Structure formats: C-alpha cells, structure tokens
Amino acid sequence: MIRVVGIGLNGKDSLTIEVKSIVENASILMGSQRHLKYFPDYLGVAITLENFIKDIKNLKELNKDNKSIVILVSGDPLFFGLGRLLLQEINNKDLEFYPNLTSIQLAFSYIKVPWHDAHFISIHGRNLDELILSFRKGEKKIAILTDSYNSPQVIANIYLSLNLSKNYDIWVCENLGKIDQKINCFSPQKLINLEQYEFSSLNVVIFIENNNVILNKQEYKQLPILGIEDKYFLTFKDRPGLMTKREVRIAILGELNLQPKQIIWDIGAGTGSVSIEISRLSNTSKVYAIEKTAVGINIITQNCKRFRTHNVIPMPLMSLEELYELPSPDRIFIGGSGGKLIDILEICQQKLRKKGCLVISLATIENLGISINWFKNNSWYYSLFSIQVSRSLAIANLTRLYPTNPVFLLKASRKYE
C-alpha cells in the first residue's frame, strides 16, 4: 500500500498522531529533501524524490513487495500535487491519500478574503497559457502556484503586457507559517519595478479584482490626450473583453474627423470608451453615449466619473424612436446595433446634419455586406478599411504576438447635389 501524506506549513507538527504513526512505521519513506528532514529519527529506508519518471518506475517495483510505503508531499496531494500523477500510473486501490491544508488556503486566510470563488492555477513547471486565458477572461480572484522561474514579477509583467481593462491588486505571500513569513500587496506596476528583488521560492501569488472607480491624481495626470490604455476603463464583469480596443478607438476618432462644438452620437456605446475618448479630444462638443442595456449605462456613468468627463451624456435607449428626439448630430459612430442596423441607418439618414459623417465598427462580414448594400442603395459615399492588431506579450526573455479580432471600419457621408 502506498500512502501519500500531505504536510502542512508547520511541518511534522501539522500531522495528526494517527498520520505521524503511519509515517514513522512505514518500511519506505519517500519525499523531497525538505520533507524528509522533518523526520530525522526515521529508522526505515528513506528515498529522495528527484526525477518523477525514474521515481515512479522505482515506486512500482517497490510496491510489488507489498511493503508499507509513504510519500511525503506538500498540502493536499490531489490539489496540483503528486497525487494526480500517481493515479495515472498506479492502480487507485493501491493508493491512500492524507491531505493537509494547502498554501493557497492559508494565503487566503492571511489576506482575509473568501476563496470559494477563486480560480486556481499552477505554473510550477508548466506553460503559461491557462494563466493568460484567466487574465483575458477577467477572473475576479486568481490564485497562482509559482516556481523559481515564473516569479511574481514575471507574472505581473505578463498581466501588464496584455493591456487588459480589468484592474487587480497583487498579493505575494512568502514562506507561509514560517518565522520569515511575508505577506505584501502590490500594484502590478510597483511589482515589476522590483525586478532586482528576489522573492522566496516558497510563494503564492493572488490577484484580487480592484474596483476603485476614481483614478488617483497620478493616474489621471498621466492619461494621454488620445489613446487611453484599455486597462483604465471599467468594463462588463461577465464580458471583460467586450470593449472597443485602444488601437481601433484611435482609428475611429481619426475617421470621424472631429471639429469643435459638434453634436456626436455614439450608438451602442457599451462601456463608453469611444465617447470618453471623443469628449477628451473635443471638450467643447456634446457626446450622447447611447446604450440599450441598464448595465451598460451604469458602466458608462462610472467611466465618465472615473475620467472626469462633463460633456458625455449617458442616454438609455428604450426604443429607436427616441433617437428622433435627440439633437441632430454632426458625427455618428455606430459600435453596436442589437440586430437593428438597417433601422438605425434609416434614422441616421434623416437626422445627420449636412456635411456630417458616419462611422461604423463591424466585426462580422454579414453586417459589413448589409451596410455596404444600404449605402449603395441610398446613394452615400463610403470608404472601408480593416484593422487586425497583434499585441506583444512578454514570456520570460521572449516575446510573443497575441492577435485581437479583426474589425472593419466603414466611413460614409451623404451625397448632395
């Protein structure tokens, strides 16, 4: 029988009397050097685990002799531990597991945050794809088991490289349960600035969503006039990627050919990112951020407060007929249509001022075709270009390119005699 015993952060003292007895009476005791040192008086055969392929082969041979074998591991053997690998190689009838508290459980206890809804990832000797996916999905809490190569600074750098709209505080918990235990909270930027600092290899990193609405003075002061990074915008909690990306916003503002003191409609405003960029670039204009969902209107309102904009008017739209009641626009941007693109274009044709222009952002070929046909049939001038941006992503000392979805930008204006 092979018994897999999880050791807590206070070593041998974390075991019950029963489990201690199992360890001390085993014929063979296997574990890392650190774990074996907890049992200096052990009288049986002690084997240091070093190479899993060789160790598992050796373990199978030893198990044939029906000896009592104990394997020492950290925390819960079945939580990103050796247990999963053992179950793949050895009949589960020959295995018993004795779990202990995990470092992640203790870390959440120390930072006083519930952990039932956290997303757990191990990058200990693994690739970083799952970590990157979790950042992109905008998980509220991400607990990460690290290794000496993927340090807290490396993880923070990956997050910042993605240029996401979700903001986090980063907790780094070192040497939990030991005399030299350290628990600190960092902003991502502050953490990567500690590039010369070496954290203990025994660390857990926890990303916790930061819901601060107002930018601090330093953040606000450093905002560019044009092209705010996506990470500064509040967005939908369940769809963090549903926002017009920075590079596309810059192109949209260029296509709109903005002038002072204009009336601008942003239809399907979503998070309000385009409206806010317009308002900062042309603070004498009036921008109507038109959105049909209550959640969207709430986010637009919060983002206006966040960026201290005073010329954006969040406009909840119950029906398209309400567009007729708005002042006639000089510029129109359509970022979303809710399946009513033709109806929206018909209203825009009636309301758009002479010499005005309209820009549509389109993600699908079908809607692109619908739009072009409508402009042709209604004698509008139009031009089209597509954008597909790939962003760099630092992976240790290397750089990858991660693509964003392609977007079509269609600019149109009325023909006049």
Automatic annotation (TrEMBL):
<dbReference type="InterPro" id="IPR014777">
    <property type="entry name" value="4pyrrole_Mease_sub1"/>
</dbReference>
<dbReference type="InterPro" id="IPR050714">
    <property type="entry name" value="Cobalamin_biosynth_MTase"/>
</dbReference>
<keyword id="KW-0489">Methyltransferase</keyword>
<dbReference type="GO" id="GO:0008276">
    <property type="term" value="F:protein methyltransferase activity"/>
</dbReference>
<dbReference type="GO" id="GO:0032259">
    <property type="term" value="P:methylation"/>
</dbReference>
<keyword id="KW-0169">Cobalamin biosynthesis</keyword>
<dbReference type="InterPro" id="IPR000878">
    <property type="entry name" value="4pyrrol_Mease"/>
</dbReference>
<dbReference type="InterPro" id="IPR035996">
    <property type="entry name" value="4pyrrol_Methylase_sf"/>
</dbReference>
<dbReference type="InterPro" id="IPR029063">
    <property type="entry name" value="SAM-dependent_MTases_sf"/>
</dbReference>
<dbReference type="InterPro" id="IPR012818">
    <property type="entry name" value="CbiE"/>
</dbReference>
<keyword id="KW-0949">S-adenosyl-L-methionine</keyword>
<dbReference type="InterPro" id="IPR014776">
    <property type="entry name" value="4pyrrole_Mease_sub2"/>
</dbReference>
<feature type="domain" description="Tetrapyrrole methylase">
    <location>
        <begin position="2"/>
        <end position="183"/>
    </location>
</feature>
<keyword id="KW-0808">Transferase</keyword>
<comment type="pathway">
    <text>Cofactor biosynthesis; adenosylcobalamin biosynthesis.</text>
</comment>
<dbReference type="InterPro" id="IPR014008">
    <property type="entry name" value="Cbl_synth_MTase_CbiT"/>
</dbReference>
<dbReference type="InterPro" id="IPR006365">
    <property type="entry name" value="Cbl_synth_CobL"/>
</dbReference>
<protein>
    <submittedName>
        <fullName>Precorrin-6Y C5,15-methyltransferase (Decarboxylating)</fullName>
    </submittedName>
</protein>
<dbReference type="GO" id="GO:0009236">
    <property type="term" value="P:cobalamin biosynthetic process"/>
</dbReference>
<dbReference type="Pfam" id="PF00590">
    <property type="entry name" value="TP_methylase"/>
</dbReference>
